[in-house]
Design goal:
This protein is mostly helical. The protein is 61% helix and 9% strand. It has a single domain (2-68), classed as Recoverin, domain 1 (Orthogonal Bundle).
Length: 70
């Protein structure tokens, strides 16, 4: 039973860490082109809710500078 509890604890920890990691620019920039597309941003609901506002130049992507305004 203790092994099962430890397994669940590790799964919970790993999933919460993944959530926080997704807010990092380099993690979200999956294709490594130096910008975050709407598709890449879609994994973060909070970022998606502000995407249009943050996309200052209106090109449909967030630069590192635009992302830093989040």
């Amino acid at each position: 039973m203790k092994t099962l509890n430890k397994t669940f604890a590790l799964i919970a920890l790993a999933s919460s860490s993944a959530t926080f990691a997704a807010t990092d620019f380099d993690t979200l920039d999956v294709d490594g082109n130096g910008a975050i597309s709407q598709s890449e941003a879609s994994v973060d609901a909070a970022l998606m809710s502000k995407f249009t506002e943050l996309d200052a130049d209106g090109n449909g992507e967030l630069s590192k500078q635009e992302f830093s305004e989040a």
